[in-house]
Write a structure and sequence with these properties.
Immunoglobulin-like, 2 domains, 12 strands, single chain, elongated, 5-stranded antiparallel sheet, about 150 residues, about 35% strand
Length: about 150
């Protein structure tokens, strides 16, 4: 009986060491959350629609053409944004997508969504600024960069 218990401990110890070794190899291979060799630049600026700052929204930089990199973005608060996560926006050409949110109409009695309080947020910008964005920008390596967007109706 004692022999089986020791065998189980030895097997468990072996797998624990194997797991720790695997975690260490993964950590060393991926680094500490760096940008993975992609050159990036911090991008910030303002976003307005019809002359008014977008109070709440999202901005995304979607790589285009020969820019092989992930999408990056940030929240827009009070008409301002800063993309600095993982070092910022990858250097290269990007399509810019902007979404702006405002409080929508309150649901009618009996149509409330469980777990959601108050009126839902609605995205109010035309598709030409998000789903079918026509905005393009090229981000250089000489950052930080300021990119302001004044979106017309």
């Amino acid at each position: 009986m004692l022999k089986k218990s020791n065998d189980r401990r030895a097997v468990a110890s072996h797998w624990m060491h194997f797991g720790l070794l695997g975690a260490a190899v993964t950590f060393l291979a991926t680094g500490c959350g760096e940008s993975g060799g992609i050159e990036r630049t911090v991008v910030s600026g303002t976003v307005s629609y019809d002359g008014q700052p977008i109070e709440e929204g999202m901005i995304r930089f979607v790589p285009t053409k020969d820019t092989a990199a992930p999408v990056s973005g940030a929240e827009i608060q009070g008409g301002k944004y800063t993309v600095d996560a993982k070092g910022g926006v990858p250097v290269g050409s990007h399509r810019v997508e902007v979404e702006a949110y405002r409080t929508g109409a309150a649901p009618a009695a009996g149509e409330e969504v469980p777990g959601v309080e108050g009126a839902p947020k609605e995205q109010f910008l035309p598709e030409k600024y998000n789903l079918k964005s026509e905005l393009e920008v090229t981000i250089g390596s000489d950052g930080p960069v300021t990119e302001d967007f004044d979106l017309a109706k």
